[in-house]
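Friendly challenge for the regulars: who can give me the structure tokens for this chain first? No prize, just bragging rights.
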Amino acid sequence: MLYSLLRPALFRLDPERAHGLAVTALRYGPKGRLAVPGGPLATQVAGIAFPNPLGMAAGFDKDAQAVDALLGLGFGFVEVGSITPFAQGGNPKPRLFRLERDRAVINRMGFNNGGAEAAARRIATRAGRGGVLGINIGANKDSRNRIADYAAMTSAMAPLATYLAVNVSSPNTPGLRALQDEGALTELLAAVLEARGAQGPPIFLKVAPDLQAADIEAIARIALDAKLGALIVGNTTISRPPLASRHGGEAGGLSGQPLKPLALATLRLFREATGGAMPLVGVGGIATAEDAWQRIRAGASLVQIYSAFTYRGPGIARDIVRGLERLMQRDGFASIAEAVGNE
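First reply, four minutes later:
Bragging rights claimed.
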């Protein structure tokens, strides 16, 4: 209720400034209790015990400033980043646009972040506090060897992460999505797995929703061969469904409600391509418990939100978690794992 009163004032601010204020408020504000392990929504993915299947997606907390606050809102896990080896400013402003009539966002941020060293120091200070922390890693825009960037990031972040998310799906770093091509992806994952070592955390791969069937088949095969922990399906889309908002023509990646049909369809294709043998994380257009439940029934072991947080505020996590528990009971499932892919 408080957020509904504050939102009109926040929405009068530049979107990027408002986002920065939100992260700062979370960073310095009161911290709630972490989600309880072993509760009714507890699930295990890639050997990791998640207290519930709802996570905050990468992009909200790029520099790992508000991990404990986000976990305290009721999220079962938080994914920070994308973090690159060296600090970079990202693309020119303005680069973040609210599409209020569409309940959507367009961004062309360009991996703006403070770099690996600063993030690692910050993450290290919360050692022992618990919670599932994913670290989303990327390559610098001006890198001459992006695969080497991912390997370096893996070495730096593996000791700090519950899982590492390899992001090759951002549309806002020129050429990055080419790393989803079969040959490049095979080489990239080999380098990442070598840098991680035998005892490192699971590797999740974040892919775009804008993939052809042949690409999905190839990525699924490579991910299974590499024994990845999960596939995150997916990132923002460069496609443009009909939009009502005045910023609908801006360049960048589209997220939020209009992405939902594409993200759901792509998840189903990855479920089919992997034969259910690879855990999937559903992202894109999830705003309610019903959306999250639909994604789980379609094959997602975990789900993530981001844009919906902008529109519904910090209470969204507990609302979705409570709703998921009701829906699971309504449909007669004893666990989240039992419902995955059971459409």
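The chain is about 35% helix and 15% strand. Residues 182-196 form the longest helix (15 residues). Your move, everyone else.
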